[in-house]
Amino acid sequence: MGSGQLSPSPLAEYGWIVVATAVEELVFRGVIRTRLAERWGGAALAIGVTSVAFLLIYFPGWVQLAAMPVATTMASVFLIGLVCGLLRHRTGSCGQP
């Protein structure tokens, strides 16, 4: 196993990807967006703010890897956060403020 690797097994690596994605979604869409929507009385601003926050959590990794993204990468990450927030709102999963 080389430096920086989590596991020699590709299956374990995919497992970590699934776990990380689930945790991100639960935190950003399940907790932060819900609390902001409750506090601000609406989902639109909460979805926008959590989408920006979702983009910003990737900056430390990009800086550490010296792989600063181009505008299209940043826009893609923001749009993923926006779409996930809208889907969560439209489906009413995790309750509906």
Please provide a written account of the structure.
The protein is mostly helical and 97 residues long. The chain has one domain (10-91). It is built from four helices and no strands. Helix 2 (43-56) packs antiparallel against helix 4. The model has no long low-confidence stretch (mean pLDDT 81).
Topology diagram in text:
Blueprint: H1 10-40, H2 43-56, H3 59-64, H4 71-91
Helix pairs in contact: 1-2, 2-4
Assign an overall shape: globular
Q: What is the percent of helical residues?
A: over 70%
Unreliable stretches covering 5 or more consecutive residues: none
The span between the termini is 46 Å
Overall SS class: mainly alpha
Main sheet properties: none
Strand tally, please?
0
Keywords:
97 residues; mainly alpha; 0% strand
